[in-house]
From TrEMBL:
<feature type="domain" description="Cell envelope-related transcriptional attenuator">
    <location>
        <begin position="1"/>
        <end position="74"/>
    </location>
</feature>
<dbReference type="InterPro" id="IPR050922">
    <property type="entry name" value="LytR/CpsA/Psr_CW_biosynth"/>
</dbReference>
<dbReference type="Pfam" id="PF03816">
    <property type="entry name" value="LytR_cpsA_psr"/>
</dbReference>
<protein>
    <submittedName>
        <fullName>Biofilm regulatory protein A</fullName>
    </submittedName>
</protein>
<dbReference type="InterPro" id="IPR004474">
    <property type="entry name" value="LytR_CpsA_psr"/>
</dbReference>
Amino acid sequence: MEGIQQIVDVLGGIEVQSPLAFTIGEYTFTEGMNQLDGAGALAFSRMRSDDPEQDTGRQERQRIVLAAISKKVLSKETLQNYQDILHSLSVNMNTNFQASDYIALQKYGYVDAISNIQQDHLGGVGGLRDDIYYSFVDGAELARVQDLLQAELDLK
């Protein structure tokens, strides 16, 4: 998770829309728009215990942070920092993504695709089994997500 903190700091921070107000440690987040530095992004994406949706809520905030990072990485304002961005990414993950690929994303308009991200999640009910926390999914929810995936992949 330190990679999230590093990339957000390299980007000069991100803006996220929080679905709820909460405090974790020294960080307080309001419902609505919040400007986050790297440590704030990490705190925002980690909180689970005070979220009414528990782990599902945490996963949603993690998606919010990743979408904000993606949007900022591909924005024209960060083009001048692409080497710092690629370095930050290379420290935390392996990729064959080259600087020329980053420039091509900008040039050929793939930046606009970031505003068209569709998401869903497999809903479940949290519970313990053998002292391990699981998310239990009922058959109807599993069928819903299977149908959605098959439709998106043109398998139906």
